[in-house]
Each structure stands twice: as C-alpha cells, then as structure tokens.
Amino acid sequence: MLHKNLIAGEWVTGDASANINPSNTNDVVGEYARGSVEDTKAAIAAAKAALPAWSRSPILERHALLKKTGDEILARKDELGRLLAREEGKTLPEAIGEVTRAAQIFDFFAGEVLRLSGEVLPSVRPGIGVEITREPVGVVGIITPWNFPIAIPAWKIAPALAYGNTVVLKPADLVPASAWALVDILHRAGAPAGVVNLVMGRGSIVGQTLLDSSDVHALTFTGSVGTGKRVALTSLEHNRKFQLEMGGKNPFVVLDDADLSVAVEAAANSSFFSTGQRCTASSRLIVTEGIHDRFVTALTERLKGLIVDDAMKSGTHIGPVVDESQLKQDVDYIGIGRSEGAKLTFGGERLQRETPGFYFEPALFTEATNDMRIAREEIFGPVAAVIRVRDYEEALAVANDTSFGLSSGIATTSLKHATHFKRNSEAGMVMVNLPTAGVDFHVPFGGRKGSSYGPREQGRYAAEFYTTVKTAYTLA
Length: 476
Known about the structure:
The protein is an alpha/beta fold. It has two domains: about 1-245 and about 450-475, Aldehyde Dehydrogenase, Chain A, domain 1, CATH 3.40.605; about 250-430, Aldehyde Dehydrogenase, Chain A, domain 2, CATH 3.40.309.10. It is built from 15 helices and 25 strands. It has a seven-stranded mixed β-sheet, sandwiched between helices. The protein is globular and about 70 Å long.
C-alpha cells in the first residue's frame, strides 16, 4: 500500500519511498509518497484557501477536532507505538510513551481552545475603550525531525489548529509513518479540506518550497543548526514569523555531595537512552574531583548492564541508531575523541545482533576537556564525555561554556548549589537530580543561545508564536 500525501482534503499519490526498520533493515515499514514542488505549492494554496473559514470557526468545532484526535491516538497507543518503534528505532516502551504524550498534547490544546481570552482596558483618553485580542497568524509551515516522529508534529499541529491557523506539515523524510498516521487521524476526525495538509518528501524539495513561498505566514522548524539558519534567512526575506529548535550540547553536573545512585541513573538516562538521539540529551558530564572516580566506576557498571537490541524486543534498553549515516557519525566521533586525547572508557563499537540493523554500543569518554570537539559539537548519539572539575564554581563555568543552551542538569543534595544553578545556568530548561531529557507537555519547551530562536513551544506559551496580537479602539 502506498501511503499518499494529503492535499486539500484529498489523498494524492507521488513517487514511492521505502521506510526501513533500523532494527531490521530487511523489514520495510511501508511505502510512502514523496511530494514534488507542485504538490507543496498546491498544499500551501489549499491551506491559504481554508484559512478564512477555519480562523473564524466556532471554538467548539476546533475543540471537538482536537479532542477526537487525542482520544483516538490514546486508544491506539500500543499500535502506534509499535509503528513508531519500527520506523525510528526507540524501544517499544519509549515509543508508546511518545504516542501517549502526543495524545496528551492534543487533549491539552483542546482545552486551550475553550480558554481563549483577551483584555478590555480603559484608554488614557476619556470615552474610548481598548480591546486586545489574539488572532491566528495564518498559514503555518511545519518542518519536523526524525527523532520524535509523532510528538513533535503533535506539539506543532495542535496549537496551530487550536488558535485557528491552517498547516502544511513536512515530516522528516526518514520517518514518515507516524506523521502519516497522525494526519490520517486528523482527517478522519473531521478536519475541513485544506486545514491540515501533509507533504512528505525531501527537505531540498518540499522544505525549500515552503521556505520560498510568500503565502506561508509562519514557519516552525526543529532540526539541525545549519538548516535552522537557512530557515531564518529565508524567512527574513519574506518578513515571516519563524520559530527554531535546533540542538544542544547539554551539561549534567555531578557535585561531591550528590547521591551517587541518583547521579548515575540521571546521567545514564540523559546520555544514552533513546540512543542519545534527543536534543535534550546530556553529552557533557561535568564531575567534581571528590566524586569523579566513584561516579565513573558506577556509570561504567551501569552501562555494562544495558541491553542494546531490537527496539521491539522485551528487555531492550537501547535500540539501534536511526540509519547508516547517523551510525557513521557516531563512529567518526569515537575516532575524533581518541585523537584529541580523551580516553574511551567504555563502548563505542558497532554491534551485531540477530537481525541486520544499526546497532551501536554506548560510549563513555573520560579525561576529556571542554575544548575538545566531542565536548563542543552535537554528536546526536549515545556518546558522552566526562569532564573533571575542581568545584561547583568551575563546574558552572564549564557548563555555561557552550554555544548551545537548551537543557542542563545538576546532581546535588545542596539546596544552596541547586538554587544557584537554577538561577545561573544559561539554559532554557534546568533539571535538579533529574535527567536533562524528559519534559512535561503543558509547560514551555525551548532554549537559549544557538539552541532556539523565537517563542517557546508547548503549553500556554505556544500562543506567542501561533497568534498575532490586535489592539482595537472604540469611541464610546
């Protein structure tokens, strides 16, 4: 079966592309259409045509669409989780958890539709009233990455629709299945023709066409730093609103007073689970001298107990890397770390399993310094480097010495240090005695510096991007 693109309420065919299971490259998840420039332009035109009616639609209509979508996602979480695990490679429990989160996001924004509000203020001029309202920004282009193939489309589509926008979704070419399933649910839940459009395919074709269109009024992007910069430059040419979530080199600080078991578990989860393929993953473990050796020993033992295998197998802790290209990048960084003088304390080898797949042993470097490439560049794999520091003050300085600023963490039993770190960490999200990866769906998500640009995603703060503010004056 060829899974087609959705344009103007109709399923439209295109050149077929095979979606391959990274746990078993002999397993084809499905055939998915790849859209053309013409397909993308048609989707943009459909979204533009649908905008006037949808932007003024009754709030109960929008509420019902989002609620029905969230309910079906949740009812099918096991099925959709299996699909996600097959196409992306994260373990089945993680995949089901991601699907559940997508359902929760739609449920949250279904509620937000009923909480739309504005302000009525007196003017400084007598006899004049002032109303401040939020209106849809317009046609929203959505470009999503491969590492969260249903959650990230959900957290962009749901608020866009809740606030009365129409959308054109371009999911990552590597993982179209989860996005297709999500759009199919929205379509059957009653999304009017043109309100939700799906164009799968290459970024150089579909993504570039979205960037080049003056009829795309806002563009939200999650992906690489290089592509994010292109999105920004092109959007400026069109005077378009844009939102970027790009990358991280997230620090996890371990102080001498930390509970060792808490620190090790948080570090292992941050750095290696989901195969390290999370922008919030911690790949810099900054550890003070008094606990350094015990921490490295305990974390190494924890890594020895992790099972790397087929994402669908019960008991698997870490699934495969997403594809051959990402696997090569991980292997290349092992060589880079060694050449820079870091010690490979554990892992870093390609693994063979019962089925052909992109299996990679989690890697832990020690004796690293913060000026090494493995400590400066985002690897996006299960590779972490331990950096030894003297004390809290040096740990904070090293943690902030990065061009990124998405997430950070600290393991400590000191209220003083925890409080100071929360205030002084140069990151958009800070975790105390918790993994740097793992966030709630109802609160803001986003970073600082080179990690993010524009208003935050998720929660009530999503309104800052998906709406525009209007101020109206009335003579009484």
